[in-house]
Amino acid sequence: MKKKPKLSQLERDRIEALLDAKVPQKGIAKILERNKSTISREIKNNSVKGHYSAKKAQHKAYVKRKYAKYQGKKINENKELREFIVQGLNFSWNPDEISGRMKQEKRPFYASKTAIYEWLYSAMGQKYSHLLPSNQYCKKKRKKKSKKREMIPNRKGIEDKPEGFKDELGHLEQDTFVSGRKTGSKAAMSVLFHPKAGYLSLKKIPNLKPINNESAVFEMLSNFKKIKSITRDNGLENKKHELNDVPSFFCDPYSAWQKPYVENIIKLLRRFFKKGSDLNSYSSKEVARAEFLLNNKPRKKLGYKTPLEVMLENDMINLEKNNPKKVVLGSNNNRVLVAIEG
Question: Of the given ranges (7-16, 116-125, 321-330), which has the lowest mean pLDDT?
Answer without folding.
Answer: 321-330
